[in-house]
Amino acid sequence: MFDDLRSKMTTEEFDYQALMDGLREYDRPRDKITDLLRQGAIIRIKKGIYVFGERYRRLPFSREVLT
Predict the structure, then answer these.
(1) Are 56 and 41 in contact (CB under 8 A)?
(2) 55 closest CA partner among 19, 4, 3
(3) What distance separates the 2 farthest-apart alpha carbons in the chain?
(4) Of 7, 14, 17, 61, which is most buried, counting CB atoms within 10 Å of its CB?
(5) How do the domains of the chain map onto residue ranges?
(6) Counting beta carbons within 10 angstroms of the beta carbon of residue 16, is it exposed (0 to 12), middle (13 to 18) or buried (19 or more)?
(7) Rounded average pLDDT over 16-36
(8) How far apart are CA 48 and CA 15, in angstroms?
(9) Degrees (nearest 5) of the Cα angle 31, 37, 38?
(10) Residue 49 phi, psi dihedral angles, 5° rounding
């Protein structure tokens, strides 16, 4: 499951809409986002902006994109 989401994201930084699009096959994608946050698979930087958790990052994320 998470590998599918990871492969859909082209950058380390992504917004809420991209995350919802990646989780569209779930009946309750918001609950899945909460689970991913609890597991540390994704990290909320600020409202609507996320990065992958340390274990799932391919590259360092860009601080310029996050500001």
Answers:
(1) yes
(2) 3
(3) 34
(4) 14
(5) 2-66
(6) middle
(7) 94
(8) 5
(9) 90
(10) -125, 130
From the list 53, 28, 12, the residue with the least C-alpha distance to 20 is 28
Q: Alpha-carbon distance 21 to 40, whole Å?
A: 20
Question: Rounded to an integer, what distance in angstroms lies between the CA atom of residue 28 and that of residue 66?
Answer: 27
Q: In sequence order, which ranges of 1-67 are alpha helices (DSSP H)?
A: 2-8, 16-22, 29-39, 63-66
61 in Cβ contact with 12 (< 8 Å): yes
Residues of the chain with pLDDT > 90, as a percent, come to 52
pLDDT band at residue 3 using 50, 70 and 90 as cut-offs: confident
- For the segment 56-67, what is each residue's pLDDT rounded down to a tens digit? 777 776 666 555
